[in-house]
């Protein structure tokens, strides 16, 4: 039998996970500046198996819009170039034999607006996930109340805790979105 405190604690843990996931999703959206998080979702065909680019190379950002990718295995160079070319980053990698050099083009106003729409969608998905976790936890609490395992007042108190936790997580997602929008609009 689950008790109220464990249901609330589990819901809060899952909500934090949702906020963390949303933060990662927003971090992978390209801004005017280069950063290694841009490459988190890129998979490289490395000797026949899809491998995350982060595991195959080191990243350096010598300038705001330049990234140097140094593969651990020079044999992975072609695969890395192809994976970057096929990604949605919109960059053409240059290979000098040792490193893959990427020069990110300046973001156009139109592209910035597209990225903001993507960021808003990802933030809304994060909020929906948090609300879904809240709903499942409240359903579990209502079931306990219906089965007379807990009192009505305990159930209402737990719902208030969940509402407060949900509001806090939604505000966190909104803050993440606001920061991402500011980053995208900065020229």
- Main sheet: which strands, in order across? 3-4-6-5
Question: Do you know the CATH topology of the largest domain?
Answer: Topoisomerase I, Chain A, domain 4
- DSSP strand count: 6
CATH homology superfamily name of the largest domain: Ribosome-recycling factor
* Strand residues, percent: 5-15%
In total, the number of domains comes to 2
Percent in helix? 55-70%
Q: How many strands, which pairing sense, and closed or not: the largest β-sheet? A: 4 strands, antiparallel
Head-to-tail CA distance between termini: 55 Å
CATH-defined architecture of the largest domain: Orthogonal Bundle
Q: Whole-number average pLDDT?
A: 87
User: How many DSSP helices?
Assistant: 4
Model description:
With about 190 residues, this protein is of the alpha+beta class. The chain has two domains: about 5-25 and about 110-185, Ribosome-recycling factor (Topoisomerase I, Chain A, domain 4, Orthogonal Bundle); about 35-105, Gyrase A, domain 2, CATH 3.30.1360.40. It is built from four helices and six strands. The chain has helices at about 5-25, 75-85, 110-145, 150-185; strands at about 45, 50, 55-65, 65-70, 95, 100-105. The chain has a four-stranded antiparallel sheet with strand order 3-4-6-5, covered by helices on one side. The chain has a two-stranded antiparallel ribbon with strand order 1-2. Helix 1 runs antiparallel to helix 3, helix 1 packs parallel to helix 4 (about 150-185) and helix 3 (about 110-145) packs antiparallel against helix 4 (about 150-185). The model has no long low-confidence stretch (mean pLDDT about 85).
